[in-house]
Design goal:
2 domains, single chain, binds NADP nicotinamide-adenine-dinucleotide phosphate, Rossmann fold, 6-stranded parallel sheet, alpha/beta, 52% helix, N-(1-d-carboxylethyl)-l-norvaline Dehydrogenase, domain 2, 3-stranded mixed sheet
Amino acid sequence: MAKIAFLGLGVMGAPMARHLAKAGHEVRVYNRTTAKAERWVAEHGGAWAPTPAQAAEGCAFVFSCVGADDDLRQVTIGAGGAFESMAAGSLFIDHTTVSAQVSRELAQAAKAKGIGFLDAPVSGGQAGAENGKLTIMVGGEEADFRRAEPVMQAYAQRIGLMGPVGSGQLTKMVNQICIAGVVQGLAEALNFAMEAGLDARAAVEVISKGAAQSWQMDNRSATMIDGQFDFGFAVDWMRKDLGLVLDEAKRLGVSLPLTALVDQFYADVQRMGGGRQDTSSLIRRFRG
Ligand SMILES: NC(=O)c1ccc[n+]([C@@H]2O[C@H](COP(=O)([O-])OP(=O)(O)OC[C@H]3O[C@@H](n4cnc5c(N)ncnc54)[C@H](OP(=O)(O)O)[C@@H]3O)[C@@H](O)[C@H]2O)c1
């Protein structure tokens, strides 16, 4: 069992830290809004610290799951950041969805202090985090990965080392490109079914056993038909992720016409007030 710090107790971070505590690790948490850290400790034990540096001091592993690139910079290399206190030989594992660039930048800064760094974005959503069934896409050195893998097992059903630092984030981008097109296709299909006077539920029931099946169809079609979107993975986060994807594609000289279009459709949903709604709310562009 190890001494572990966890930075960021949001929708994803709080349950991930809970799984680490349940596995028997000594967990010290940090959250920008202190009340959340206090509440987490009251429920799950361990300790909380007022800064990332204080949380990370003396820990073998420091995990983070915050918001975007600048948030991650703040909790690592910012004033009171974790890199101030982490010892040589310790390991930083980032679960935030950020750019591959910032992962590489922070891995360099960590290396200068003898700290290992893994970028390890996740897929599986809030339910995956709560149930300990996340998919984790990791970039970094093999030796660091081997050390972190048994610890991350506490909340994962699949963990893959994809290549050097940044490769985890690039793989997460592949994931988001796949999802963007599928959700738009499903939105068009369900709207078509309803406009054609079909029982959309019955249509899904039949075609979901054939080649049209997808995770989105299995998990989101019923709520899309009912017009329910106040749960799940927020459109605002998806736009952040698609922004990262499109920036990277520009750097690579790769064309992503469908992803760029769906990103604009999500901008429409934001303008309709749906920024915090689940990504399946794309269908609102047809149905209000
Ligand atoms: N939700 C999902 O389904 C899902 C799935 C896969 C990946 N992700 C990714 O995982 C990350 C976290 O998502 P989430 O849904 O857990 O978000 P969330 O509920 O909004 O939580 C974000 C956490 O980061 C902290 N934070 C943000 N900016 C910070 C800063 N500058 N300094 C210190 N702490 C900061 C927040 O602190 P406060 O409490 O003070 O606000 C909060 O603890 C995002 O990158 C997201 O894209 C999310």
